[in-house]
Structure formats: C-alpha cells, structure tokens
Amino acid sequence: MKRILLLGATGSIGLQTVDVIEQHPDKFCLVGIAAGHQADVMQKIIDKHPSIQVAGISDVSKANQLKGVKVFSGTNAMVDCIENCEYDLLVNAVVGFRGLKPTLTSLKKGIDVALANKESLVAGGVLVRKTLHETNTKLYPIDSEHSAIFQSLQGNRNEDVKRLIITASGGSFRDKSRDELSDVTVEQTLKHPNWNMGKRITVDSATMVNKGFEVIEAHYLFDLPYEKIDTVLHRQSIVHSMVEYNDNAIIAQLGSADMRLPIQYALCYPDRPVLKEDHPLDMTKTMDLNFKEMDYVRYPMLKLAYEIGKKEGNLGAVFNGADEQAVQLFLEKKISFLQIEESIEQACKNGKYIENPTIEQLEASDAWARKFVIEYWD
Ligand SMILES: NC(=O)C1=CN([C@@H]2O[C@H](COP(=O)(O)OP(=O)(O)OC[C@H]3O[C@@H](n4cnc5c(N)ncnc54)[C@H](OP(=O)(O)O)[C@@H]3O)[C@@H](O)[C@H]2O)C=CC1
Ligand SMILES: CC(=O)[C@@H](O)[C@H](O)COP(=O)(O)O
Ligand SMILES: [Mn+2]
C-alpha cells in the first residue's frame, strides 16, 4: 500500500489524482491533502478517505471548516504537512512558484515526488537537480508530454537519444495571426481546443509559455541539452510527445486528452494496472494526425524560454514570476493578452542574474518579478 500526500488536491490534476487513487484501493491510500481555498471540496475528500491524517490550507480563514484531521494553515501549510506526515510519495499538483519549496522539502526528506508542478523545475531546476543528486531521490513526471517521453525512453539509453520532440497543440489562438491577438478576451483564451485544465495553464498554453516551460522541464527531468529538445505543432493532442533515437526510430506515446493515464503511470511506475477513462483512445475512430514545424516568430515566448533555460541561474524564477503575475492581471482584465508577453520580456530584460541562487534568492527573484510587472502597468 503506497501512502500518498497530495498537494493541490482541489484542482484539475488534484481531483483526477483522487480519482486514480479511488480506482485502486488495494494499491494506494491518501494520508494527507493540501490546497489553497476550497475547504468544502477538501472536506468532501477527507470524508471519503478516513486514511487522511493531515490537511493543509493556505487560506487561514477557512482552516476551522476542516474537521477530523490535523490542520495546518497559512503560507507554510504544505511544508508543514510534508514535515508532519508519514507518506511514501508526494504528488505535487499545486499551481505556481509556491510548489518549489514543497518539492525540495520532500526530496530532502528522502521521499520521491510525482510532479505536475512544472514551476518547481522552471523556477528552481538547478536546486532541484542538486537535491536529487544529494538525496538519491526521484521525480516521476505527470505533465502529459514528459510522461510520454518517460514512457518512450523505457528500455533505452540516454546516449542513444537523438532528440526529444515535444508536441504542442498551439493553444486557444492557434488559428489566429499575431495581428489578430490584440483584442482577444479572457473567455476566448480559456477555451483550450483539447484539454480541460486550470486557468493559469490554459492561458500559458495560448501564449506558448506552457510549451517553453515544458522545454525547461524536459531539460531537467531527462538530463539532455537544449539542443536535443525540439517542439512540433500537433493540433490533435493525441501523440503526447516522442523520442527520436540515433538510428532514426521515433517512439511515441498516444492516448486521449485525459490526465489520468500520466497520473497513474507516475503513481504506479513501472506497473500499468487497468485504468478507467471516459473516452479511451480508439485508433479506428481517430482523425488524421498532423505535425507542423514550430513557428518561433508566431510564438516568441517559446523562443525566449530556450534562451532563459540555457542561461540557468535565477532567470527561470524571473520568467515564471513575471508570467504568474501577468496572467493574474490578464484574468482580472487589467492588461491585454499581448501585454502578458510584454511583461515577461521586460522582466527578463531587467532582472538581475544570479548564477547559483539559493532558495531565498529564488524567492526574492520571484517577488521582484511580480512587483516589476505590477509597477510596469501601474
Ligand atoms: N491541468 C492539467 O491538465 C495539467 C496541469 N499541470 C500542472 O499542474 C499544476 C496544477 O495545475 P491545475 O490542476 O490545472 O491547476 P488548478 O488551478 O486546477 O488547481 C490548482 C491547485 O493549487 C491550489 N492552490 C492555489 N493556490 C494555493 C495556495 N496559495 N496554497 C496552496 N494551494 C494552492 C488550488 O487550491 P484551491 O483551488 O483550493 O485554491 C488547487 O488545488 C500546475 O503546475 C500545472 O502547470 C501540468 C500538466 C497538465
Ligand atoms: C495536459 C498537459 O500536459 C498540458 O500541459 C497540455 O500539454 C497543454 O497543451 P498545449 O500547451 O500543447 O496546448
Ligand atoms: Mn503538458
């Protein structure tokens, strides 16, 4: 029985993780959950899972709504849960930079992490890599592209990899030119063509910041140079990513647009138990699959992510912090869609570079980038 501590339990990935756990009561039990504000959703999970001992909620005013478990609240609640819970695997499905410290804390405790929180690697990749080496712990990818790559690498050697090919749907505005982006609305942006996800990642998908994040994430997860990480436009989101080998063989993982498979693979690796999905992929009913060369002029954020990723240091924290703040301003209808890109470009241009940042310096870089974006549009 694997004991799971789940961060971000009330979100899109969190709730799908709960579903996977409930599909395998013989394999998993939930021993702790954490989230931001939705105490009612948390309590429903707690009532259904008597194995839960601890709960963490960032919103202090909601803490007294949680019953029957030990409750931690405030900004350190997720770390408090990690430090006060006996578990075998941390599932980090919280959104944002706030996920980095919990990832590091669990690895330092010697406990592996199933990682959906890509910000841990975008903002803190250098620190996470160092901690993985020091503690001999592992990260299991949940992000669909990285799960596909992880699955396609099984049984093969890193030195035989020619390149990773990360697929990109193109996001909500893939059929619009850059000129047509100036007045797109929040509502239009939140309609992803293929996936049903949280708001922040859906906006990131439309700006292609998400794909940029995924390039950086792949660099750290699979220990490959950026020169060996490519992206390709693939409208259908059926081929979740590919690995091309030196002998030109391309190995891919295909599936429906449902995160339960990558979640289950991360939780069960290397086993593949039966999984119930709403619409598992039926090859005979699948439309054509097409692939198109990536357009880095149409998607400048992806180009910028390669540059930021290669420079390492604290720049990933600046890139992510600026994006988090800009997406929030966009969702509040205070800036336009294209001003998200401008916010990130300006923050990255003005941010002070630190080669080997500590966690405190990454936190300061994140805070600086947010403040920079707020003041830039004030
Ligand atoms: N959704 C998807 O299909 C995919 C998501 N990912 C990644 O997974 C992560 C989660 O994404 P997604 O599930 O879509 O996001 P959601 O917005 O759906 O969920 C976010 C979760 O984070 C919690 N949260 C928000 N603020 C805080 C806080 N201050 N303290 C603690 N918890 C907080 C939310 O709690 P509450 O709602 O209670 O405030 C919620 O549980 C992201 O890093 C994303 O990039 C990666 C691949 C696919
Ligand atoms: C489901 C998932 O992993 C998301 O990160 C998804 O990949 C977003 O799709 P695009 O960024 O390709 O639009
Ligand atoms: Mn993804």
UniProtKB/TrEMBL annotation:
One of its GO terms (biological process) is isopentenyl diphosphate biosynthetic process, methylerythritol 4-phosphate pathway involved in terpenoid biosynthetic process. GO terms for molecular function: 1-deoxy-D-xylulose-5-phosphate reductoisomerase activity; isomerase activity; manganese ion binding; NADPH binding. Gene3D superfamilies: 1.10.1740.10, NAD(P)-binding Rossmann-like Domain. Keywords: Isomerase, Isoprene biosynthesis, Magnesium, Manganese, Metal-binding, NADP, Oxidoreductase. It is an enzyme of class 1 (oxidoreductase). It catalyses: 2-C-methyl-D-erythritol 4-phosphate + NADP(+) = 1-deoxy-D-xylulose 5-phosphate + NADPH + H(+). Residues 4-125 form the 1-deoxy-D-xylulose 5-phosphate reductoisomerase N-terminal domain. It comes from the Bacteria. 1-deoxy-D-xylulose 5-phosphate binds at residues 118, 144-145, 169, 192, 205, 210-211, 214. SUPFAM superfamilies: 1-deoxy-D-xylulose-5-phosphate reductoisomerase, C-terminal domain, Glyceraldehyde-3-phosphate dehydrogenase-like, C-terminal domain, NAD(P)-binding Rossmann-fold domains. Its cofactor is Mg(2+); Mn(2+). Pathway: Isoprenoid biosynthesis; isopentenyl diphosphate biosynthesis via DXP pathway; isopentenyl diphosphate from 1-deoxy-D-xylulose 5-phosphate: step 1/6. Residues 139-222 form the 1-deoxy-D-xylulose 5-phosphate reductoisomerase C-terminal domain. NADPH binds at residues 10-13, 36, 117, 119, 198. Belongs to the DXR family. PANTHER family: 1-DEOXY-D-XYLULOSE 5-PHOSPHATE REDUCTOISOMERASE, 1-DEOXY-D-XYLULOSE 5-PHOSPHATE REDUCTOISOMERASE, CHLOROPLASTIC. This is 1-deoxy-D-xylulose 5-phosphate reductoisomerase. It comes from Holdemanella biformis DSM 3989.
